[in-house]
Design brief:
CATH topology of the largest domain: Beta-Lactamase
CATH class of the largest domain: Alpha Beta
Structural class: alpha+beta
Shape: elongated
CATH architecture of the largest domain: 2-Layer Sandwich
Radius of gyration: 32 Å
Number of helices: 4
Strand order of the largest sheet: 3-2-1-4-5
Oligomer: single chain
Length: about 200
């Protein structure tokens, strides 16, 4: 019998007693579990209470004493009540983290919708294609995890990708990319042009 397997508190009356020294919540005694060892030298008795959360043992409260037969039912009841409070605190902490995650997700969605609205408004005005694509690139960078966005257009005559605009790319690097047409399917050389290796990259054709 172990506390982790059964989810029940247990009193170890004496680690040095050879026979029936373990007492569970129902008053049953069994031989000392070999896996239950003193926390350190000189410990004779212990009280182990599980912290139950969502049907599983999430932790243990382990009390020990140098004297044998130190723990009884009164101590067990007190520690079990504390274990219930610990489980409630654990549940509250989990719910708080879930609320934070939901809040962050909602904020990202609001930001994404805001960027989409900005893009929609920008595209309704008469402006060069490059300017429109730059607005789209900046919106993608702001609303997604991508640090670098590169937008290219495919030239049917040359069968090359023509670099048009991007976001998160230094002006000098962007000029160099425009000067280096790339065939479709050719590995990009953007990583060699001053873009951080750890950056998230998005290429759009």
């Amino acid at each position: 019998m172990t506390v982790l397997q059964d989810g029940e508190s247990i009193i170890i009356s004496d680690f040095e007693a050879p026979l029936e020294v373990n007492q569970d919540r129902k008053g049953r005694t069994t031989k000392l579990d070999p896996g239950l060892c003193p926390a350190h030298a000189g410990i004779r008795s212990a009280l182990v209470v599980p912290i139950a959360f969502q049907g599983q043992v999430a932790g243990l409260i382990h009390l020990h004493a140098k004297a044998p037969h130190h723990f009884g039912d009164s101590e067990r009841e007190i520690v079990e009540a504390l274990a219930i409070q610990a489980a409630i605190a654990l549940g509250n902490a989990n719910r708080y983290q879930e609320q934070l995650m939901r809040g962050e997700l909602l904020n990202r969605r609001v930001e994404t919708l805001s960027k989409l609205l900005e893009v929609s408004q920008a595209l309704q005005t008469e402006q060069p294609l490059e300017d429109s694509l730059e607005v789209i690139a900046e919106a993608i960078q702001a609303a997604t995890p991508f640090d670098v966005v590169l937008i290219s257009l495919y030239d049917l005559r040359s069968k090359n990708l023509v670099r048009v605009t991007g976001a998160g790319i230094p002006p000098g690097t962007m000029s160099e990319l425009r000067a280096r047409p790339q065939t479709l399917g050719q590995p990009s050389k953007i990583a060699k042009l001053g873009i951080s290796p750890g950056a998230n990259l998005l290429y759009s054709v």
